[in-house]
What does this fold into?
Amino acid sequence: MRRQRQAKIVATLGPATSSPEAIRALFEAGADVFRLNMSHGSQADHRARYEVLRGLEADFGRPIAVLADLQGPKLRVGTFADGEIDLERGQAFRLDLDPAPGDAGRVNLPHPEIFAAIEPGTRVLLNDGRVVLEVRSCGPDHAITEVIAGDGLSNHKGLNLPGVLLPIPALTDKDRKDLTFALELGADWIALSFVQRPEDIAEARSLVRGRAGIMAKLEKPSAIASLEPIVELSDAIMVARGDLGVELPPEEVPGLQKRIVRACRLAGKPVVVATQMLESMIESPTPTRAEASDVATAVYDGADALMLSGETAVGEYPTEAVAMMDRIMKAVEHDPLYDSLTTDPEATSADAISAAAKQVTETIGAAAIVAYSMTGSTTLRASRVRPEVPILGLTPRIESARRLALAWGVHSVHTEDAQDFIDMVHKASAIARAEGFAKSGDRLVITAGVPFGTPGSTNTLRIAWVD
It folds into this structure.
């Protein structure tokens, strides 16, 4: 099951892809990481899908990463007496804490913290930006707004406040329950929604306690002001373009995507680009040319992985969407103009070894880099330098092997650690040959830590011939 590309594919499971046959088809088409969207479905649904994935892992002998995506706070208006209303541009519209059903002049907004954060001039976006209100006056329990755009509103539509830092924690009570469930289940990555500040990551880390990697979803403009510290505190980042595109002008999102990807590349943190990658394939067997270009651009920029959401969760062509993304990625990576960002090594032994491994590989024409690692951190450093050959990430910890399935260029393998130098070379050669990365007579560049089995001790580079 060797992939013929370096970038990875994240596929969201849902009603369209719940059966063992459908999940297997996604994996065989190219999915490397599977997302359980905790905003939808029951815990029983997620458990059943998780068990199918672990069965696939055993069948194919390839570690599979599972990403549990927490819902986060959902800001929504209340209900209307008639289910929906018509709005006219320029009219006054009141938001308040009164739980009574709304009408054409007002609606309940059951979030007192919002009234504490807004002020006259604040723009309020409803229904993914289809309705725009501007606050004219406000108090601790209400806001009088003017309708700037939009002509209709119905029950429980979502709300966004561009540029407003809300005094709301990233983890709700539901998220805490889902987090406990996901960790007990064995999820490899936890995606944290509604991240606004570095403290949101710190809170999640205190709860996860190293049992999974933490992926911060950047969907709030307020998080961009703290981009570097958020990247530093996270294990991975997701560019959640859906909400970013609501709260920011559309023309700003592409440049921001590039900025986030570059920041992650420099920090050596995996970065996922998500939302509307192949949106038309929810209903069509082929994407638009603009969507194909969008996917290609993210690969050219150096993203570790791209994510499919509705395309695979509820779409009519989930397998075709994965296969299409796989083909686009391969085409980009074979393009002579493809040149991912080169990063300078940091002043650590692991970075020095990883940079040297890339240089040696190019000089001698090695078939692959083999990185021994307990936690996977050394393998991620090898991925950071973006070598021109695949990276075999060997680790005795299945948890590390699964998390590495997200990283660019890494083919992770769960295997026993090397006992000595002879065993290191023999095991690397045998696995490279068995996994289809090298043949007899090829050369490998091997990195490891001595003494063997000691986390964080990468200090050795070895050139070996494959038997």
In short: The first strand starts at residue 8 and ends at 13. The domain at 8-72+169-333 is CATH 3.20.20.60 (TIM Barrel). Residues 113 and 168 are 7 Å apart (CA to CA).
